[in-house]
UniProtKB/TrEMBL annotation:
This is DUF1572 domain-containing protein. InterPro entries: DinB/YfiT-like (IPR034660), DUF1572 (IPR011466). It comes from the Bacteria.
Length: 172
């Protein structure tokens, strides 16, 4: 198989994995706590979702042909804690991911020679994808961390639960 095809399939798999982790974290949080902020400088779960979706719309719209920082993006507004329901938050979440997958799924090996611009900085296609993959993974980590705090002792681990590593370790 072509290494570029392998890379693209791996990237799509990881984007889907982090999307799923975020969803599993958010599902465990009571609706009223999705909007909680530790302080005015921190972000709620809903605000992180709003920012991620805004970034996805900007970066992945016309991904191969225009700068990833679109002039119509209102980045500062992404940090206003104004989403009011889980349903609204999930609609924002799904719309952002749709733009991402609609941009990535049709990429072909010939696209790997293109230069992708983000804030007028040139990136290889791989670097542009990696930049976004790591950005979203860091925000999903925030969603998980907030989810653990806000689920008030009812958290179901998304990986190996504390105290159960032996169960998952290979036996000699």
């Amino acid at each position: 198989m072509n290494p570029t095809t392998n890379y693209l399939e791996s990237s799509l798999h990881l984007f889907r994995f982090y999307k799923s982790l975020g969803e599993k974290a958010m599902e465990q949080v009571p609706e009223e706590k999705l909007f909680w902020q530790f302080n005015p400088d921190s972000n709620s779960i809903a605000t992180i979702v709003k920012h991620m979706a805004g970034n996805m719309h900007s970066r992945w719209t016309d991904f191969l042909h225009s700068d990833g920082e679109k002039p119509w993006r209102k980045r500062d507004a992404e940090f206003e804690n104004d989403i009011r329901s889980r349903k609204e938050m999930m609609q924002v979440w799904e719309a952002g991911w749709k733009v991402l997958f609609d941009a990535l799924e049709p990429i072909t090996p010939k696209d790997f020679d293109k230069t992708i611009f983000i804030r007028k900085e040139p990136h290889s296609l791989i670097d542009a994808i990696n930049r976004q993959l790591t950005h979203y993974a860091s925000h999903v980590g925030q969603l998980i961390y907030l989810g653990k705090m806000l689920s008030a002792g009812t958290w179901k681990s998304l990986s190996i639960p504390k105290g159960q590593s032996e169960t998952y370790s290979p036996k000699p």
